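Reopening this one. Same input as before:
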Amino acid sequence: VLANLHFALPPPDPPWSMARGYKASNCCGKKARATTPTCVVRPMRPHTERREGLGSMSQACEVPPWRPLGREPSSWSSGSVDCDCNMHLQLGTDSSSNCPLENQRKRAIPVSFRAAVLAVSFARRMSKASASKSLSTDQNSRVVGQQLSFLEVIHSLSGRLSQTETTTSTREKVAQLMDLLEPGQPLAHFSDFAKEYGDATYCRRLVTKYQGDMKKCSYQLKQALIWREQHKELLTTRRYTQAGDYRVLGADLAGRPVLYMCMKNQLSSMGQAIDHIIVCMLQSIDNMPAGVESATHIWDLHGMMIYLNLNPTPLIQILKMAEGYFAERMHELIITDMPRMATFLKDAAWPVVPEKTRNKIKFMTPEQSKHNMQIHFAPETSLRIAACMDQNRDQKLSLEDRQRTWMRVDKHGELVPAFL
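Same output, byte for byte:
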């Protein structure tokens, strides 16, 4: 290709353009049939070209503008167009001219340096394509594997970069939340006991839960500090009135504590049971190993006494605690054996539950719950909770009989009496 190229200074507008499968309307109104990559000739200004070895020692030829009567040469070596009108690319002069450059021009070879580079690039691509056909199956597989490996590396690097950017952004927002507690800031008037809870760990959980929305995070931080001051005595003494059998019974395979309660053992209304639930959640936090920040809750609604749960307000309060003070502390909530009469409680509370929290709530039958525990819980935890579920459904056992067996797992992993 290079041997047939004749370089000249390009005009202001590129006289040549190359396109693979280029199609355009021609003089006869019909589409040209191009089966190979072609070059398209555009008009160029006349200029004088000097070429050595043509006729005499030095010969100049005045070349008039090109006039593309057809649109697509059917080959690199021919100036004809595979078109129904059978027209050809011609020079602006008479075809009977003896100018030696005219015959060279009829071969439709690019003139500009850019077109020459494109021509060489196309030739190299064609040679690679033909050579690739001769590769064996193993070689093709190896090439594909190398390409996939390269893509995997690029994807991994982009993922790490995105994760680094996210981590940096989270740290900045956590710092902004903690600055609200400094003197002269909006939350500086709270007591030291309240502000003690607004550490980096809690602020990071808020940023994670509300996806970096600083307005929501600031509001929830303020509400958490207010709630903490209101419940200072409960948080420090952990004294409460027993309202049921809510307790920590073990951990799942990831080390997250598992809490269980059965509504058949409910001793007071839901409103009076809030303190009991809060202390149980604090005990689960005590049981969390390093790197674990959430727990799994199982609410067994078997034997639910509707007259103790007619008011949905306490349930909404519990959900608000989960969104504020105990943000990102709930990994999953499994509701088992919910009676139809309790549907009104779900309908009343469901509209105020955020979408992210809804995705953590699962409704299961007792059989489904046991199967789920066998998969995700530690074996001893799964057996312990399954035994409690069977015990609560045993009509022969009284409440006093069940109470004597109530145990919980402390922060050392040992079974201790649940209620003293």
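So the earlier flakiness isn't reproducible anymore. For the record, The first strand starts at residue 16 and ends at 19.
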